[in-house]
Amino acid sequence: MFEFPEILSIPMAKWIDRIMEAVLENFGGFFDLIGEISLVMLMSVERVFLAIPWFVIVIAVGFLGWKILSSVWKGILFSLLLMIIGSFGYWDLAMMTLSIVITSVITALIIGIPIGIIMAWSRTVEAIIRPILDAMQTLPSFVYLIPALMLFGLGKVPAAFATFIYAVPPVIRLTCVGIRGVPEDVVEAAKAFGSSRWQILFDVQLPLARPSIMVGINQTTMMALAMVVVGSMIGAKGLGMEVLLSINRIEVGRGFEAGVSIVLLAIVIDRLTNALAKDTQTTVAGS
């Protein structure tokens, strides 16, 4: 009497299993192709980072910090933070992690910004996509590993796929917010001068929405870094794998070094992308 009636149970697990089986049966070749292309991209980016001498990257990051933040000392600080990662012996692993993050973020921008633009243009599309974005940001990050594993198996590709799914919502939302925030009178003035819809988008809306989009890029990058340890559970090598191994072997010092390396990498990327967003906002406001 006190048990939940079986007649009201919803066999969602069976439905999802059947859907995934149908997808793999009918589109398995397509996902294999996507996996091969993604793997080539990932390995190409990784080879580039591993081929560049460590001191070149350290100097380049310090120079970027100086130019973007207009502070020599902050540029030097960023260089020192990267050197700390190298001093732990994790430089190559950090570059592997960075390659997955950058590939996932670039994919998120290529797909996310156009979706954000379409959402800004159509209230109907926004009403459909917004609940999906809510669900994507609410689900635990571990959940994304399940479809990634089923579609792509183990390795870097499913880790990048799961990272992309987890990190793409902010850039979609903030692109939509940025374009919606463009003053209507500015758009009407552009229409009055005979501008087409695409001219208005590229010459008016996107430049004015750039600060919001840059914040979206910053948030997407940070969320991609947050998936580093989770991605290591399905075979992605890098700093996350070191954290996972240290947990399994109860090696506190090793885990602390790997964790600090992830934090330092996140600090450098966050400060640089956040400064770019603020610089863009100042430039747009000044113009």
Features:
287 residues, single chain
Report on the structure:
This protein has 287 residues and is mainly α. The protein has one domain (11-51, 88-286): MetI-like fold (Orthogonal Bundle), CATH 1.10.3720.10. It is built from 13 helices and no strands. It has helices at residues 12-51, 54-69, 72-87, 91-121, 123-138, 145-152, 156-167, 169-180, 184-192, 197-226, 228-232, 239-249, 252-286. The longest helix has 40 residues, at 12-51. The model has no long low-confidence stretch (mean pLDDT 83).
SSE order, one letter for each helix or strand: HHHHHHHHHHHHH
Sum up the overall morphology in one term: globular
Task: Compute the number of strand runs.
Answer: 0
What's the CATH architecture name?
Orthogonal Bundle
Number of domains: 1
SSE inventory with pairings:
Blueprint: H1 12-51, H2 54-69, H3 72-87, H4 91-121, H5 123-138, H6 145-152, H7 156-167, H8 169-180, H9 184-192, H10 197-226, H11 228-232, H12 239-249, H13 252-286
Short précis:
The protein is mainly α. It contains 13 helices and no strands.
